[in-house]
Design goal:
Blueprint (H helix, E strand, L loop, with lengths): L2 H11 L7 H9 L2 H12 L9
């Protein structure tokens, strides 16, 4: 499944399968969009992370 489809589904439905929640979180945290936005927030000083 393409990530954009996954993201749209995840945003609309949420998580109903708690058994695989950690896998879904890892997939989300490794996504290009998440990493890009995390770096932007870190540069703005709004997020403390491993990037700073």
């Amino acid at each position: 499944m393409p990530f954009s489809v996954f993201l749209a589904y995840f945003s609309a439905v949420g998580v109903t399968d708690l058994v695989h929640l950690s896998e879904k979180i890892k997939k989300h945290e490794n996504s290009k969009t998440y990493l890009h936005n995390s770096m932007k927030l870190t540069l703005l000083g709004l997020l403390t992370s491993e990037f700073s």
